[in-house]
Structure formats: structure tokens, C-alpha cells
Amino acid sequence: MKIYLDVCCLCRPFDNHSDTRVRLETEAVLSILKRCSLDWELVTSTAVLYEIGLIGDPTRRSHAL
């Protein structure tokens, strides 16, 4: 299965988890990424790579990549 996550999804784990919705969304994104390391294929686009390049914090940018 091919999976495409936009930059908002990829950056969700770096958001404030005090809100239950944000925490649950983070858990979902991390579960999807874990599954992509097993048998799903994470696909990307030039638009995603461009948007990640615009992230000002180098640590966040690195982790999103």
C-alpha cells in the first residue's frame, strides 16, 4: 500500500500534546510511519520536499525529512 502524508502530518509529532486531539493525531501519524518501515510505502512529492525546506527550525526540518 502506498501512503502519502502532507507536511502537516509529518510535523504533527512536534506540536504541543496537551490537547487530546493533537496527541491522538500524533499517535496515528507515528503508527502510519512505523507501518511504512514494515510493509507500506511512504511516497512523497516535490511539493512536500519544498514545504519541508521552508521549516525554519533545523531540528524540526531534519526530523520531518
Short description:
It is built from four helices and two strands, in the order βααβαα.
SSE arrangement:
Blueprint: E1 2-4, H1 7-11, H2 20-36, E2 41-43, H3 46-53, H4 58-64
Query: Approximately what portion of the residues adopt beta-strand conformation?
Result: 5-15%
The radius of gyration computed from the alpha-carbon positions, rounded to a whole number of angstroms, is 12 Å
Helix content: 55-70%
Q: How many strands? A: 2
From the structure above, extract its key features.
mainly alpha; 65 residues; 4 helices
Explained architecture:
The chain is mainly alpha-helical and 65 residues long. It has one domain (2-64). The chain is built from 4 helices and 2 strands; from the N terminus they run E-H-H-E-H-H. A two-stranded parallel ribbon has the order 1-2. The mean pLDDT is 95.
